[in-house]
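Ticket closed. Logging final result for DNA-binding GntR family transcriptional regulator.
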Amino acid sequence: MPAPDVSPTVIAERVVEAILAQKLAPGERLGEQALAENFSVSRTMVREALMQLQARGFVEVQSRRGWYVVEPSAEEARDAFSARRIVEAGILEASEGRPLAKVIRKLRDHIADEQRAIEGADAATRAFLLADFHVCLAEQMGHQLLVDVLRDLTARTTLAATLYQSKHEAGQSCAEHGAIVAALEAGDTAGARRLMLEHIGNVERALEVDAAAEPDATSRLRATLAPVALPRARR
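Final structure:
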């Protein structure tokens, strides 16, 4: 019998949560049978969850091999960060003139949780909370339609951070979150927006992405078909 309250959507959200916590790595295999046993459900339900995740861009199916967490290209990573800038800057801009006392209180509580996780040894909780700050911001600002959008975008950039070995330290992220909230508390919406854009930029710049490692298709084909440089025959 399926576990109570387990549905394909619940399974999909658990996978996204694991990505945000950096417990699932890009390229990691998601076996249908293993997932079915973990959630005590049928493989049919698992397959439906995986199809939801595929539609959201988190997993891909490889012929005769199964389901895998996607490995975002450098261009896909840049696109996700760009989308986050647009969404998060817009959320902060729309907050101007609104009473934010309750929002600030909730965000400060979240940052306190981040700090406790950083001081502790649970890397997964730390990673999840640092990513979830941005989702929490959208939620507290009342942008319910953007919560799921931002969760997916943040999970995409988390995959990029995992794949490209981000050097952005947890303590720095937490401090930058604190600065954003401090600006909001001071009524400086424009400053909070600027700090958010700087924060997202800092995270992106910390990725070890070598653009030269991803030549375009034409260049790649040219390099592939170039003559092999054999050593000269000895005379």
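Residues 74-94 form the longest helix (21 residues). No further action required.
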